[in-house]
Amino acid sequence: MDNNQRIHKCTTLDCKVPGFRKLSDLRRHQHSHEAPRFFCPVRTCKAHTRGFKRKDNLTEHQKRVHEANARASMVASHDSKLSARAEPMEDEEMGNESPPLALMAIKDGFDSSLSPKEFLLAKLAELRTSRKKWIEQKDEEIRAVEKTLFLINR
Q: Ranges for the C2H2-type domain (predicted)?
């Protein structure tokens, strides 16, 4: 048998992959035809709702996309012995005057002319505006689909 032959074929009807040399590669590929099972724990991430079909893809996504946040939360959890899950801080913990590490992990950058509180308020306003635009866009899409359904049912 030639080592370049792809003898293991996917049995899914619409699959266009030519084949696999190893049975283990075929089995891993067959999982990609199943429903997504691995979701990103970051609620604001697209992958939180879309998900991944393989766990290694989720792991790679977390390393690439959320690496800065992960490092910041690891340092924070080590220092304050909090769980890795983001939880609201108690008032007595807020007495610390230094900005939280999560602030430093924000990718949009920090305007040094603003105080950390002003920066966060501006970021919050930006996120709320973005959310409103997204909701308006989805409402338009819903209306378009409803109109199409109405026209089909005439």
A: 8-33, 38-66
